[in-house]
Amino acid sequence: MVDVLALIDTITKEDNETVFIEQFVSDVRDFSSQYGSDISISYTAYNLAGKPSKYPDYGDYPQAFVMRTYGRWWKEAPSGVKEFMPQNQGTIISQDFIDVTFEQAVYPFQVNIYEIYNPGALVRVWARSLQGKWALLWEGAAQATRPMSRIFSPPLRTIQFPTNLLRLEFDHSNLEYYTELDAVCLVGTYKPFPENNLGTCHTLQNPIVRSRNGSSSNFSGLVSVGDITNRVQEMNIHQFSPQVDISNSISSFLDHEFPSLLKQIEDMQRATPNCPALPTSSSPPPEVPPHSANSGAFSTLPDESILHILGYLDLKDLCRCAQVNRHFRGLAQDPHLYIELGLRKFWHCVNPVSLQCLTPRLTYIQKLDMSWCGNYRDISPDDFIEFLEGCGKNLTHLRLNCCKFVTDSSIEKIASLCPKLQELALQNNTKVTSRGFFCLTSLHGLERLDFYRTSITKEALIAILKSSPQLRHLNLGSCMHISSMDEVVLTLSKHNTELVSLDLWKSYTLTSVGVNALGKCSKLEEVDLGWCLSLSTPGLSLNSIAYGCPKMKKIFLASMRCLSDYHLEPFLKNCSLLEQVDVLGCSVTADIISRLLRDCQHLKLVDVSFCDNISEVQCDSWRRQYPNVSIKQSYQSEAKYRGINS
């Protein structure tokens, strides 16, 4: 009898023990966002390298990895974006990822995620083979958990290749505050697991684990067993006789029984000539009815109605419909279904071949999202350019966040092939130099630019801004190569007065001179000046925003250490539409926040984390008094919040 809930030890039969290798992250290869900056170690992705430094403490620590956003707030802000082809997202969505590597490739048995603040955001774990193939190890919806640090160990599917590269995907859309990770541990073996466990989740009883330093330990209870599994074990229905050799049985059937079965069917058909012939391997395939004969009840509907129905399907289901018959293939590949195309969900399988297959359907495409696709040389710059040449002429919106194939040559082709472009998102594309960015000056209809964590320089950016008078949304967060953000903002105030949102987060060269100029952009509804360290003493510069931008809905002023009640006073008087306010780490008092909550009737979010003059008791009182406002107050470890395993 075989217990399918316990992995049989077939790996080290000589000494009846399974040896596992325990490794922590050796390097961070890629990520979509981080709260920290590239010139600091606080809150950065690279804090995931090595062993945990804070677990089991629970709280907000700069030694952890923290992503840029949380909750629904960024989506609801004036700068919020909508997904292209949103039906592709499915029920389990993600906004961020991180790729981590380990010293040695192993067959993964367990992945341990050390979560030390607001856990529960992990939704997928992927493994990449040495040959470049991705496999999904685990997927699950984001969890609502207790505010405690924990080691999260999701049950993994068995795969039949070793890996030293994992991708973790996160959905923090329902989190109350930023999630923080301390470390990631990969446990695996050098030899594959038995094939009869392929694709299943596994547990193991009393294995031996060896860490990278060579020490060994008994690792019993490696994966906790849930209530359903316990019930199955109690009923003993997981015990059954060993499986037959399926592959040999199928081969035997095809070699012996199948030919005789075909002969019997042909004899029956000769006896009953009205029955249609069954095709054999030597006969040509039957002619597929070109239209309604094979379409069932759909044959009663006009094609326009069927196209409307197909418009609700995601890309995967459209590909399946194209396999039904010739009629459905023509409909499922109709270019009108591909006005918008979102490929980010399918980043793991988008390659030059799939792009070539899609190109004939993209005659009318206007909005394309290829974010996260093609990394690790899965798509080359030439592959992307060839794809763009086939579908780029009508593009108005193009998102290429975290795409390593985006280079100067790619940007040059975008500028020449996409004259109608209104939106261009290039987050985390660090290979583009000034030569590439200057090419964008030929695009005069740009309304949204996202340059978060790119290498854009002051000179290239100013040139782009001068040629984009219709610009409405601009993200320059964590752009470390801009030598003078003041000059950039002065350009905005002269040439981009249609501006609605501006993200200058962690702009270390912005001073009060630049902030003063923002008041001339009277249509501004959102400004992020968080962690602009040269603004720690803002003086009177914020008054220009408060008086000059009465439509302001979101103002983030995190880490302005000298910002006091005096600096917020003008916003209470002139910005009655305020919805989101972040004064993390500022010197404001409870009095001004009380007035803000009282006077700003549209307020939805207030972050007063690390404000020394505001107590937790006061925040609790506000939450009771203003239940429709989300009031944030972050903190560091308390003993009662220390860790658990799950």
Automatic annotation (TrEMBL):
<dbReference type="InterPro" id="IPR032675">
    <property type="entry name" value="LRR_dom_sf"/>
</dbReference>
<protein>
    <submittedName>
        <fullName>F-box/LRR-repeat protein 4</fullName>
    </submittedName>
</protein>
<dbReference type="GO" id="GO:0019005">
    <property type="term" value="C:SCF ubiquitin ligase complex"/>
</dbReference>
<dbReference type="GO" id="GO:0031146">
    <property type="term" value="P:SCF-dependent proteasomal ubiquitin-dependent protein catabolic process"/>
</dbReference>
<dbReference type="InterPro" id="IPR001611">
    <property type="entry name" value="Leu-rich_rpt"/>
</dbReference>
<dbReference type="InterPro" id="IPR006553">
    <property type="entry name" value="Leu-rich_rpt_Cys-con_subtyp"/>
</dbReference>
<keyword id="KW-0833">Ubl conjugation pathway</keyword>
<dbReference type="Pfam" id="PF12937">
    <property type="entry name" value="F-box-like"/>
</dbReference>
<feature type="domain" description="F-box">
    <location>
        <begin position="295"/>
        <end position="341"/>
    </location>
</feature>
<dbReference type="Pfam" id="PF13516">
    <property type="entry name" value="LRR_6"/>
</dbReference>
<dbReference type="InterPro" id="IPR036047">
    <property type="entry name" value="F-box-like_dom_sf"/>
</dbReference>
<dbReference type="InterPro" id="IPR001810">
    <property type="entry name" value="F-box_dom"/>
</dbReference>
<feature type="region of interest" description="Disordered">
    <location>
        <begin position="276"/>
        <end position="295"/>
    </location>
</feature>
